[in-house]
Structure formats: C-alpha cells, structure tokens
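quick one before i forget lol
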Amino acid sequence: FTNTKKVICLGDAVTFTDISSSVTPTSWQWDFDNNGTTDATTQNPTYTFTAPGIYSVKLTVSDGTNTKTVTKTSLIVVMASTTSAGVPYAESFENSAFPYNDLYIYSNSASAATWNRVTTAAYTGTASIKLDNHSPAVGDLDEFITPDIDMSNVTSPTMTFRVAYQRRSSSDTLDGLRVYSSTNCGVAWVLKYTKAYSTLQTVTSVS
C-alpha cells in the first residue's frame, strides 16, 4: 500500500491506497497504529491520527481463500499541532531516555540501522546521535526531526551543529547529509544544508 503523507500535523488526514497484487482482495483490515485493533475495512481509507507520535501501519487483505499481511514500521510521523520548544533551543543528547518524545526518528531502510544515541563520541557532554554506516540501497533515508520550534520573535534565526563522518569503503558514493526546515509540519521542506560523501567526510580512513 501507499500513503499520501509521511510527516503531518496533529489533526491532518492521511489517505492510504491498497495496491495488492499477489491476491485480488475482497476484504481489507487496516490497523493504523499497529495495536491489534482494526481501524478501517474499506480499500482506500482516509485516517486522522489523534495523538502525536510515530505510527506503524498494518494492512491485511483476503480474497476469501488467501490472506496476506504487510506492516510498515515507523511509517507516519504525527507532530504536535502547537510548538513545543522555543529559542534558544539546544540538544546535546545527554538524556539517556532516547528516543525522546518530541524528537522523531524515521527510516525507510530495510536495515535495522538508524539514528541512535551513543556515548562513544561527543562535542559537548558525553553523548551524540549516530547512524551506523550500513550497506544502503539507493533511496534509503534515515531521518530525525526536531520538535516544532517557535522562532516568531527571531529576526534572523541561525542553526549550528557538529558532524563527523567516515566512509564505509572507498567505493561508497551513496552517502549524504541534508538539513531541511519546514513551516507546515512537513508538507513542504526547504533545503538548508547538503554535503555528499566527499565533502562530508571528516577523516580519510574508511570503516
């Protein structure tokens, strides 16, 4: 199945489209928060999430004889409809209870690797977040999204961050880091920073 949106504000609706091909379904069971309860039974439903968070979605289809199920983990990010942070805003990941309720982690990768808090590297304090350099497929995305930050009283806001990157191999040309901003809960994003593998790396060795 497909869905129209990935990041939404609380109260926004998402439309899901069944594209089953291994069976020709005559019945559909959608579980939009993967809690075991069926939330919709139409083929292409529209659903409104009622609480902020990251949601996995499960679809079970049947043609009366065969039943197929697919679950997409961490598929929908629902952000609070009001700002939850102000300026100055800082995050050094010193809180060990990661991931935090207002920091959203998203990955569309088949690998289990995603952003995690570590204490093996830091700029301030003892912690940072790290993405293990796995063997990616073209199009793999691993994202972390900050809380909504109220900058209405700031004339020229700036953002700074520290980054370290080591290439996986000398032939690895897929990696890149991009930073975007959004003023409408992810409906549209503006690119603020981008570096590919060659300009992103901070050491010359590979690992």
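fyi The chain has a mean pLDDT of 87.
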